[in-house]
Hints:
The complex is a heterotetramer, with two copies of chain A and two copies of chain C. Helices cover 52% and strands 14% of the residues of chain A. Chain A is α+β, with helices and mostly antiparallel strands. Chain A has three domains: 5-116, Acyl-CoA dehydrogenase/oxidase, N-terminal domain (Butyryl-Coa Dehydrogenase, subunit A, domain 1); 121-212, Butyryl-CoA Dehydrogenase, subunit A, domain 2 (Beta Barrel), CATH 2.40.110.10; 218-364, Butyryl-CoA Dehydrogenase, subunit A, domain 3 (Up-down Bundle). In chain A, α5 runs antiparallel to α6 (104-115). By secondary structure, chain C is of the alpha+beta class. Chain C has three domains: 3-104, Butyryl-Coa Dehydrogenase, subunit A, domain 1; 138-247, Beta Barrel (Butyryl-CoA Dehydrogenase, subunit A, domain 2); 272-401, Butyryl-CoA Dehydrogenase, subunit A, domain 3, CATH 1.20.140.10. Chain C contains eleven helices and eight strands. Chain C has helices spanning 3-28, 54-66, 84-97, 106-118, 121-132, 247-266, 276-284, 295-323, 332-354, 368-379, 390-401; strands at residues 138-141, 157-160, 164-175, 182-188, 199-205, 211-216, 225-236, 240-241. In chain C, β6 (211-216) and β7 form a beta hairpin. The mean pLDDT of chain C is 90. Chains in contact: A-B, A-C, A-D, B-C, B-D, C-D. The interface between B and C is large, with 40 and 45 residues.
Amino acid sequence: MILNEEQAILRETAAQFFAEKAPISQLRSLAGASEGQGYDPQLWSEMVELGLPGITVPEAHDGLEFGWMGLGAIAQEAGRCLVASPLMSSVVLGQNLLLNCGSEAQIATYLPSLMSGETTATVALDEGRFFNPDAVATSDASGLLNGRKDRVLDAGQSSYVFCIAEQASGDRGVALFASSAEGVSIDSRRTMDLHSAGSILLDGVPAEDTVWLAGDDVEAGIQQTIDQATIVLAAEMMGSAREVLERTVAYLGEREQFDVKLATFQALQHRCAHMYCELELAESAVSAALTALDQVAPNVSLLASSAKALANDCFTLISSEAVQLHGGMGVTEEMDIGLFLKRSRVCNQLLGTSSYHRDRFARLRGF
Amino acid sequence: MILNEEQAILRETAAQFFAEKAPISQLRSLAGASEGQGYDPQLWSEMVELGLPGITVPEAHDGLEFGWMGLGAIAQEAGRCLVASPLMSSVVLGQNLLLNCGSEAQIATYLPSLMSGETTATVALDEGRFFNPDAVATSDASGLLNGRKDRVLDAGQSSYVFCIAEQASGDRGVALFASSAEGVSIDSRRTMDLHSAGSILLDGVPAEDTVWLAGDDVEAGIQQTIDQATIVLAAEMMGSAREVLERTVAYLGEREQFDVKLATFQALQHRCAHMYCELELAESAVSAALTALDQVAPNVSLLASSAKALANDCFTLISSEAVQLHGGMGVTEEMDIGLFLKRSRVCNQLLGTSSYHRDRFARLRGF
Amino acid sequence: MSQSGNDRLNKEALAEFRADVASWLEANCPLSQRQPIVREEQIWGGRRRVFPSSDAQQWFEACRERGFTAPEWPAEYGGAGLNAECAKILKQEMTRLGCRPPLYCQGLWMLGPALLVYGNEAQKREHLTAICRGEIRWAQGYSEPSAGSDLANLKTKAEDCGDHFLVNGTKIWTTKADEADWIFCLVRTSDVTPKQAGISFLLVDMDSEGVSTSPIPLISGESEFCQTFFDNVKVPKANLVGELNGGWAVAKELLKHERKMMSAFEGMLEKPAMELLELADYAVGSDAQGRLNDAELRSDISRHLMRETALARLGERIYWQGKAKQTDSRLPLLMKHLGTTEAQAKDELILRSLGGEGLSMDDVNVSEGLRKMVKQWAFNKSLTIAGGTSEVQLNIIAKRALDMSSGERK
Amino acid sequence: MSQSGNDRLNKEALAEFRADVASWLEANCPLSQRQPIVREEQIWGGRRRVFPSSDAQQWFEACRERGFTAPEWPAEYGGAGLNAECAKILKQEMTRLGCRPPLYCQGLWMLGPALLVYGNEAQKREHLTAICRGEIRWAQGYSEPSAGSDLANLKTKAEDCGDHFLVNGTKIWTTKADEADWIFCLVRTSDVTPKQAGISFLLVDMDSEGVSTSPIPLISGESEFCQTFFDNVKVPKANLVGELNGGWAVAKELLKHERKMMSAFEGMLEKPAMELLELADYAVGSDAQGRLNDAELRSDISRHLMRETALARLGERIYWQGKAKQTDSRLPLLMKHLGTTEAQAKDELILRSLGGEGLSMDDVNVSEGLRKMVKQWAFNKSLTIAGGTSEVQLNIIAKRALDMSSGERK
């Protein structure tokens, strides 16, 4: 990534902050908390103080306007520590959906409290076993909102839910309601990576408890938000992949076997070199996608699919190899390597597997 | 492969024969011959003297009845030397199609001269760019045989052509005609592996020049012949893959770089070990398929697809790696490594690519 | 008497044995003990043994009385003294009825066979009997934290103190050591080179002062393995098996039996809730022609099933080669690497198929059968590490099967 | 004058230069020389040079007279003496009009830049001028049959015989040596260690007695490369470039320029008959939704196109990092391995798409464009070998980018 000066400072600040305040041991301490708690609210309020919710928000909305490359850099640093926070659910998904699909009045109503950390939001998009945003059955057809949403990030801790659903008109829209609204049942669970996702059952949420986002082009806004979140998630995954590769190379440099350092074995050197090539290749795809977001380029969707598919494959490869190259220790909870492995497989399913994105890429390219 | 005593002797005889009479230099000498000449007739008549056409033929038809495992062993030995001969076209395809689809009278008429080497035959099955035996457009509908056949092995040197075509009845059948018959134009070419395949244009072959095979179940016979040929081709490919892996390992054991033998570099050792694992895995699939042929097992088609898909992938991998590990010499015609590479890619297209066979396997398994 | 007459008599005796065993099993194996075994119901014996049910206890005790917990061991040590043919018949009949193994124990599979070769009379009498009777549960003490694949590099030291050894050090990956009573260990008794020549084989009562054990939590949420610590542990000299500094030979004998016995039990394991194809159809659905809707997954499953079948056939090839005296000694070297790698490939296909249902090992909203698949995926990451890493396997294949010299430093 | 004033003047001068160059090119570059170049029409110069057309000759001669065959070389040696800014403008204008390179020569790209640094005045005057004027065609003599990736292990020997060296040995992979006039060689002049310290850089006239050359046929049917033999060849001492035993430094200088110059020409190459997507659609067809009928091929093409784009972006990252002074020196180490591997992956996709039309390089029933793809597939197998094998690249990446120590023996 090429960062400008303020982005570079931001990255450095974030790196120090996460290393100090959110090391993986902090994530592990969540394992003892209740099922629905996927992050530490105290950590989030400190992240808010750093200004993280405002990074891509225009100055007109009191944001920092540091751009997507800046947010990508922070996501990478968060990925290095596997940080659990509502950065993805509330900021990258929730806030951006509001900005992309909301009317000016709606933005003015809801954005300030999200940016101040007073409230958090999440987006309810997925339905069923696989990510497939084009097939949404949740509907307002009966006048009451009905449906079931899956893999809603941090569902148990969000004040608001932005729910992608079919409007009475038949068009797709975004229904906003409080997570405490009538007819909303949230079942939030910790996934194996110690982050949190839940299902939301909507059993007749009354129209009076629901606000439909009313921006100029809601459908385009939904697509745009999905692309943005896909790219930032890919950036976060690259941070995790880089961290776990670095840990692995360091481990091989320390560990001796048959009287020589493992790092001197050529077969292991070539495997690490191969991983590093794949890492920087995927990083390049992610960096291209972030740049395209900042430049509002027309081919963002194509680059988003490339970024996520390459990030999935790269993180899957590196985390598997990391476990193998750590030997017996790699499969124990005494090291964090297994957490990276699990995180990679969870991330694969979030916002689309490689197979999904290769298909989408081909569709967008017309083949 | 587990061979019985007579099969083992046969294999040994074949190995010695090919090493002496058909080394790769013999194949290379064909490059100077006319385009249509894909094998040396003298070599073939010596192979006939060894009894090779009769290996799987029942004793009742004056064959040796040594079984498919025996034929597979010979195909492997032929594969080691990349032997160009009508063993595949005339024996495995032609003769077997006659045996599987012909009436007793037809078998009695055509088999003896094929087995004695007096005549040769080939099978015209493929149409179009890819192997797809279920889509045959060549047809007798007009009373005259019309169509175009591709990749007909040794088309330029065959006395007879067994042509898979639609009969006037609409059923699929096998039309037998002399390659010199009216309306038959054969354009035979040397493929890049120095073997020979051609296209045959059928422009109204008269009914009186054509004999339709009239066995009990022609359709089943066609399927059976395709499975048999697929399995024997896979066996031949495994022989080639084994030979080129052995040559590569031997080369690494001779060649020094940075003052040590290449064979001592662990990264190369692991790659060779990986190839050897893949080789024996594919060999096991081929051996299972040959056994199933000998036992007339019900799942032959499934095993044929497994054998070909694994043989394709294995030979493709090993021949590519062989070129790479031979360094600069691997891409020159001074060594034979490049011929194995080309042969692997030609074989991939004959009787179905891996992708075709994975699809077929899934269809047969019902998923 | 003629050879064929002998054969006939023998055949009759075997048939009689088979009938006898079959009716004994019918009479003594409760129906509940003829179901596929689940991990929680395995009987491991030992001082602290608990039976999962009275049926299980009844079945175990019946087998123990007939020596069927160790059918091939001599009767004087608590076995049934069966020859190979009879033992095979017993196994066939148990398989036919689906009888569960009456006893699981590393003493039974690993230590016992080695003691029969290398143990002295007193050791055999004491330990073999206790193993057969399920009184003592054994753990294996081979690996050490710093040794990894380089087993001979072990550092746990047994110092000769006249009438006893003083043991200091630590062993890792000791399966269920926290539930075991005794542990068999490789220890260093000399610093000569090669390192293998300074290793002895020692039996240690885990109740001895200075032995402690702590479980190692795994990424699958289980903790099958432990680390065991030895802090000035006194071990009587009588517990040395084989020669002093001759432990490497005992260890190799023992490893020969490990895989053989383990694989004999594999067929008895609980089946997964769904087979891969069934799971894939459940997860992604199929079209009107019955083809899975996800073309990439379909093709990858095809590839896997082809390889899985080929792998089974490779095992058969090895078997039949042996029968036909056409043994290719290279082939067995490939099985572990190929088998474990393909098993992991299958786990990844399962995880892909599970999609959103594969994100947790303990989300009660997902059926237990599916969650077990996720645990299995995580647990099986150890397959390519435990019992000789894939890297070591590839080294061995290159060296022994392909004769690629290893150079001095590798 | 103020800095900004200087800048303005300079800007004006450059604009003037650009206009001048543009009109000169317009006037002197025939339309036929503004088409993408095909291999057969490249002008390589040399004693036996033949022009593919009178247009080509005219264009070459016009450039030669203005020094545009070597724009940045000093005018006294036949160049145009342009500074970097002007040379860039010339290149931009040539690219804009699509002008073909007026001269191809390894002397131009590789030897010349090294001579400018290490050559003495007489050498520069003699050789640079002949190169610019297309009078002498050069070949490169680095690799040897037994050395492979271990370049420093070269054995071609130059014995000091007072007034001349006596050269014996052989060089391989000398591109088009059979058409070259001179060859620049690395030769051994001492047996000291490290081996690099015993190598000298020598210029050899291939008309000398004892030099012979034979082309090496490649699997793509071409024979771009030769082996060159030296049998008691007398080479004047004046032909030594740089210090005796100092050839390694010259060689490294020269390699720096190799890739830079080659990549500058890449954009000018002839396009393939069909792009991959077009070919795939032609070969397997598409359904009503425009999806390729072969799902596996479709997915693999997606993967390749994503990687190809990412690779281009990696190149840009390196460029922009340099601009932003945030250089990550590890990234350039990856380009060759990733680029060549992906190019081969593409070739395999092309071959798969070609199906039955991809079985021959010279079957006239298949269109020439498709047959060229098959030749390309075969030729490109050398990409991961020539100019540093992938194995050497991976060694370098592990060592320099990941700081994995290499041990003594590797």
